[in-house]
Amino acid sequence: MKHILSAAQFDRAELEKILALAARMAENLKSDGTRLADGKILATLFYEPSTRTRLSFETAMLRIGGHVISTPDTKFSSVQKGETVEDTIRILSGFADVIAMRSSEIGFAERAAKVSAVPILNAGDGAGEHPTQSLLDLFTISKYFSLDKKICVTFVGDLKFGRTVHSLTTVLRNFPNVQLRFVAPDELKIPEKYRQPADEIFTEISPEILKTTDVLYVTRVQEERFADRAQYERLRDTFIFDAEKISQLPKKSIVLHPLPRINEISPEVDALPQAKYFEQARNGVPVRMALISYVLNLIG
Ligand code: NCD
User: Fold this and answer.
1) Could you tell me if the CB of 133 is within 6 A of ligand 1?
2) Catalytic residues, which ones?
3) 288 contacts 132 by C-beta, under 8 angstroms
4) With contact defined as beta carbons under 8 Å apart, do 152 and 215 qualify?
5) Does the C-beta of 257 come closer than 6 Å to ligand 1?
6) Are 106 and 163 in contact (CB under 8 A)?
7) What is the pTM of this model?
8) What's the pLDDT tens digit per position in 225-283?
9) Neighbouring-strand partners of residue 215
10) Going from the N-terminus, what domains does the chain have, and what CATH number goes with each?
11) In Å, how far are 80, 87, 90, 107, 150 from 83, measured between CA atoms?
12) What are the Cα distances from residue 203, in Å, to 21, 167, 267?
């Protein structure tokens, strides 16, 4: 059985297969989707807030002809009564053919996968990973740059708690020409386990960094992960990208953000040609259509 639990599970061949499948799904979307998943059911189980991820999973399932059942909030589920994740999954995997889930606990999806009779899709496990987001990020990057050419991806913001960064750096390791660069204050720096010796590390943004960046990946300071509120308040606006800063990037560069953004990208940037974060979010649908089809073995 195929689960999607961590970005580390993919090798280059599998990533390329998923990207190709996502491109096919994007084509299908132009004519309303496909009926590949006719009769299948996706359950979405989200124990943390979400707009894009849950709704794009659900849209993806509907666009491949399947159905959706959902418990968008633990307030309405038996977790509130003290049910364990394992029991919830045992039950749900008797109802649905695939389960997409999110929780604030690192490793939650692995726990679920151990007892599940159906594929588990990790839609974010606390400050751990967000592997399906990393695939839509990779898909978006691949629309603008060949992953075989030398490109520089600069990650900025909360690299410590930002799970999308953890997963995207991991998938990018499969492409040796991609240079990774991390910009964060010490309190938010990238964890050792996601670092490699050739990476470039900075604590502040400079004109030189901007000038030599192909993909600027901006993240939100993850308020919900801070034990110390004052520390969050101090760090939340460390980086703010306005039109002036973005204009220092190369013309052909792109700006990504997993969203939601708070203050880190000013709204005036949205109109600039480099701003691709809304397109990135839209790519969540074909990529998740591909992922659901992949784990359900609906295509050869
Ligand atoms: C991200 C997440 O939940 O980790 N959002 C998303 O799924 N697109 C990023 C974030 O919340 O900052």
Assistant:
1) yes
2) 52-53, 81, 102, 130
3) yes
4) yes
5) no
6) no
7) 0.97
8) 999 999 999 999 999 999 999 999 999 999 999 999 999 999 999 999 999 999 999 99
9) 153, 254
10) 7-131+283-295 (3.40.50.1370), 132-281 (3.40.50.1370)
11) 7, 7, 11, 18, 49
12) 38, 21, 24
